[in-house]
TrEMBL record:
GO biological process terms on file: D-alanine transmembrane transport; L-alanine transport; L-isoleucine import across plasma membrane; L-valine import across plasma membrane
SMART domains documented for this protein: AAA
Cross-referenced Pfam families: ABC_tran, BCA_ABC_TP_C
GO cellular component, one term: plasma membrane
GO molecular function terms attached to this record: ATP binding; ATP hydrolysis activity; L-isoleucine transmembrane transporter activity; L-phenylalanine transmembrane transporter activity; L-valine transmembrane transporter activity
Name listed for the protein in its UniProt record: Leucine/isoleucine/valine transporter subunit ATP-binding component of ABC superfamily
Highest taxon listed in the record's lineage: Bacteria
Gene name per UniProt: livG
Keywords: ATP-binding, Nucleotide-binding, Transport
Domain ABC transporter positions: 4-252
InterPro entries: AAA+_ATPase, ABC_AA/LPS_Transport, ABC_transporter-like_ATP-bd, BCA_ABC_TP_C, P-loop_NTPase
Length: 253
């Protein structure tokens, strides 16, 4: 059984078909790439999977359960987390507080508990602190826990975003252009980092990425979109040499 399966998901914006009949299948622990020229429909596909958009047509299945059209926070609770193309941190907050806040999606105590600060609530808070610190250690940011997040260099802000996503205990992590804005050294490190988090957290990863070295270096299978249509799907070597893929990329240059 696939962890995630989309069945012909389609998204139309008035006259424009941003994604047409997209079938994606992701198994446990796979690292999958979603690539294509600008405007190909990649982010729209993410938005359909994560509940930002309800597909005009087609279904999204997570562990064989139909999750089409659920709200983003419900999708998160099922175990799908994401990062965004434009980093969305709480810039004024510390690195640690950014992760703590993300954890609160999982908090069990009710409002009463948090206002009265019941022992149950305080215990949960302590657990969240410990879990957040462990996550920061996993992504190599524990030394920077008290730093304002906007002071971090770009590559580290991206890692912090990933730590925030991991705080919701996903089984599937969607990364929207994780290498964007990274220097060559950072993007090289990113490849090892992505494999590390897959192994450590036992998750599958679907990533949108324009940086071909990163895509080819880390993805086990790749889907290629062009004008909303899936023009190729397969192993990195085959994708790299696929004439349709080459043409799609050269066509926009
Ligand atoms: N909310 C929207 N309303 C109308 N059109 C939209 C909307 N969102 C996306 N589009 C259009 O759908 C198409 C696909 O956009 P999308 O952002 O999914 O592409 P992308 O592959 O993620 O591109 P990029 O690599 O540049 O981020 C584009 O033509 C875009 O202008």
């Amino acid at each position: 059984m696939a962890l995630l399966r989309t069945d012909k998901i389609t998204m139309q914006f008035s006259g424009l078909t941003a994604v047409l009949d997209l079938n994606i299948e992701i198994n446990d622990r796979e690292i999958i790439g979603l690539i294509g020229p600008n405007g190909a429909g990649k982010t729209t596909a993410f938005n359909m999977i994560t509940g930002v958009y309800k597909p005009t047509k087609g279904q999204v299945y997570y562990n064989d359960k139909d999750v089409t059209g659920l709200k983003p926070h419900e999708i998160t609770k099922f175990g799908i987390a994401r990062t965004f193309q434009n980093i969305r941190l709480f810039k004024e907050l510390t690195v640690l507080d950014n992760v703590i806040i993300a954890n609160h999606l999982r908090l069990k105590s009710n409002l009463f508990g948090s206002v009265v600060r019941t022992p149950g609530y305080r215990k949960e808070e302590q657990q969240i602190y410990e879990k957040s610190m462990a996550l920061l250690k996993d992504v190599g940011l524990d030394d920077l826990k008290d730093e304002k997040s906007s002071n971090l260099p770009y590559g580290k802000q991206r890692r912090l975003e990933i730590a925030r996503a991991l705080a919701t205990d996903p089984k599937l992590l969607l990364l929207d252009e994780p290498a964007a804005g990274m220097n060559p050294q950072e993007s090289h490190e990113l490849m090892g980092f992505i494999r590390e988090i897959r192994d450590k957290f036992d998750i599958a990863i679907l990533m949108i990425e324009h940086h071909m070295q990163v895509v080819m270096g880390v993805c086990e299978r790749i889907y290629v979109l062009d004008y909303g249509v899936t023009i190729a799907e397969g192993l990195p070597d085959a994708i790299q040499n696929d004439p349709k893929v080459i043409e799609a990329y050269l066509g926009v240059d």
